[in-house]
Design brief:
Keywords: Pyridoxal phosphate. It comes from Lachancea quebecensis. This is LAQU0S01e15324g1_1. The protein is an alpha/beta fold. It is globular, with a radius of gyration of 24 Å. It binds pyridoxal-5'-phosphate (PLP). Pyridoxal-5'-phosphate binds next to helix 6 and helix 7.
């Protein structure tokens, strides 16, 4: 008798060592084989970085799609799309019926803003001054082309949450707004907004909420979607959830399933199974109403499904290779706690972490530190903080230098200071922040010195 038959399966399981979850840090970059080994990656917040196992899955889907396009599109794609949405919903603990894939957060915002039946003679949108420019531009487009009105809440960080909420409240209480668009986590600077209270504030004032959660999935718990039920929310999956580019998610409150439309408008607009049934009497009718997000979004013109059909693989990577969301987050927070004093020391006297008195601006994956500029640059600093075009030009020159050093960090002028945003990801370790801080500090000095001697 072989020994395995003598051991009860549960005992056997205990004897087999579970594969050790690899430690994070630079050695973990082996899971990201496409990354140039000479690069110090400190800007995950912009585009994310896809693990090799996920790009392999993406490649397999491409090959399957190309292998027999007709069968893939006519027979398999819809079913696999639904499976991937289910897997995502299970992972995020959300109701899959409210979710659809979109290519990115910008597309999510466009999908919502271009699905609303605006009354352009009176409707007004509220956004904030740190809104992502691509999304703010969608509002501006509707204003320029159709006359939609909008207002901007000025946000100048570091802001206390109460102060931020009071600024929104002051505007919303006027009763002048149909929709309010706000970030969960802003881009530049990378700070968290009190999005749950903002959703409640919108409800209180009967204003539609559109939550730009581009950085949400993979950084914060999204269960608030099903409990607080904002009207709309979009998040990227390619930033912090390790899905391939271009992969995002759109959440739509059930009360808008009838009116939301895919971008682009496609076949689905007039398909029978994409129409909302006002007073459903049969189980079939109810099922149709509950399936509208799927029916409207799974096919809206020919695309590669490779990124959407790699979502389950990305989740597996996070669960099995990384050891789960808690372990990831724990590492990010710890590394951030260690990296902040290092960056402050590298930047020198006057450098500040962007934070408020209750520490609510922080997110696990990003922090912002001001880069103090020496007195000799005071005239140039004045230009940087007051002239957008001058700053853009300066930023481009700094970026070119940082690219050449293979350690790029994004810069922003905000509230009279120059800020550097650092990302924190499982493949980072403390030394990266020394390299990054030196790269950006020397690039800025080099560009400003060249300006002084011009
Ligand atoms: C707050 C915010 N909104 C929207 C976006 C747009 O994301 P994407 O370019 O993937 O559409 C970003 C990207 O960084 C962002 O930070």
């Amino acid at each position: 008798m072989g020994c395995t038959q003598l051991i009860a399966p549960s005992t056997l399981e205990a004897l087999i060592p579970t594969p050790a979850v690899m430690s994070f840090g630079k050695s973990f970059r082996s899971h990201f084989p496409h990354l140039d080994p000479a690069v110090t990656p400190l800007n995950h917040g912009s585009f994310g970085l896809t693990p090799g196992c996920v790009t392999e899955q993406q490649k397999r889907v491409c090959e399957t799609q190309e292998g027999y396009s007709d069968r893939f599109h006519f027979s398999d794609a819809e079913r696999i799309y639904a499976q991937q949405i289910q897997a995502l919903a299970r992972y995020l603990h959300l109701d899959p019926r409210n979710l659809a894939f979109v290519t990115n957060a910008t597309c999510g915002v466009n999908t919502v803003l271009r699905s609303i039946k605006w009354d352009f003679s009176r409707d007004r949108v509220l956004l904030h001054s740190v809104s992502y420019a691509a999304c703010a531009n969608t509002v501006k487009f509707l204003a320029d082309y159709y006359g939609l009105q909008y207002d901007v809440v000025k946000l100048d960080y570091p802001l206390e949450d109460d102060d931020l909420l009071a600024r929104f409240h002051e505007k919303l209480a006027t009763g002048s707004y149909r929709l309010c668009m706000f970030d969960m986590i802003s881009s530049m600077p990378g700070v968290k907004l009190p999005y749950e209270q903002l959703i409640q504030l919108c409800k209180q004032h009967d204003v539609l909420s559109l939550v730009d959660g581009a950085h949400g999935a993979g950084l914060v718990d999204l269960q608030f979607l099903d409990t607080l039920q904002p009207d709309f929310m979009t998040t990227n999956l390619h930033k912090w959830l390790n899905a391939p580019k271009s992969c995002g998610m759109l959440y739509v409150n059930p009360k808008h399933h009838a009116t939301i439309q895919s971008l682009p408008i496609s076949w689905n607009y007039s398909l029978q199974n994409c129409q909302y049934i006002p007073n459903p009497t049969t189980a079939e009718d109810r099922l149709q109403n509950e399936s509208l997000m799927h029916n409207k979004f799974w096919f809206a013109g020919t695309i590669s499904y490779a990124q959407y059909f790699s979502v389950e693989e990305a989740i597996k990577f996070r669960e099995e290779t990384c050891g789960g969301e808690d372990r990831i987050r724990e590492y990010q927070w710890q590394l951030q706690r260690d990296a902040v004093p290092l960056v402050l020391a590298e930047f020198g006297p006057g450098a500040k972490l962007l934070q408020n008195s209750t520490n609510t601006l922080a997110v696990a994956g990003m922090f912002n530190v001001s880069l103090p500029l020496s007195e000799k640059y005071s005239v140039l600093k004045q230009k940087l903080v007051s002239d957008v075009h001058y700053f853009q030009n300066f930023r481009e020159k700094c970026a070119a230098l940082m690219f050449s050093r293979k350690a790029f960090l994004p810069l922003v002028c905000h509230n009279g200071e120059l800020w550097v945003r650092f990302s924190v990801q499982v493949y980072n370790e403390l030394e990266d922040y020394r390299i990054g801080a030196r790269s950006v500090k020397s690039a800025v000095a080099e560009v400003l010195d060249a300006e002084l001697s011009a």
